[in-house]
Amino acid sequence: MKDKVMSIGIVSDLTGLTERQIRYYEEKQLVFPVRTKGGARKYSFDDVDRLKEINDKLRDGFHTFELRKPGRLCSE
């Protein structure tokens, strides 16, 4: 589902990642939440899947710059 409706707290619960990790992955341009008028991040279920995959790849030894390359993530 591509609708971006979940807060970072919900995404943290669903992925097991900390909110800081999620913000770091955004900073590294690996995930792209939308922002509400108030500045809150909103994520989709596709983003949740992507975050899980990013975390798995990083644990397997990839670097964030490698994951930005096209084709490195299945969810692209």
From TrEMBL:
A Pfam family of this chain = MerR_1
Mind telling me which PROSITE patterns this protein's record contains? Answer: HTH_MERR_1, HTH_MERR_2
User: Sorted alphabetically, which InterPro entries does this protein's record hold?
Assistant: DNA-bd_dom_put_sf (IPR009061), MerR-type_HTH_dom (IPR000551), MerR_fam (IPR047057)
Entry keyword set: DNA-binding, Repressor, Transcription, Transcription regulation
What SUPFAM superfamilies does the database record attribute to this sequence? Putative DNA-binding domain
User: Which residues belong to any copy of the HTH merR-type domain?
Assistant: 5-62
Q: Which residues cross the membrane?
A: none
What protein name does the entry list?
A: HTH merR-type domain-containing protein
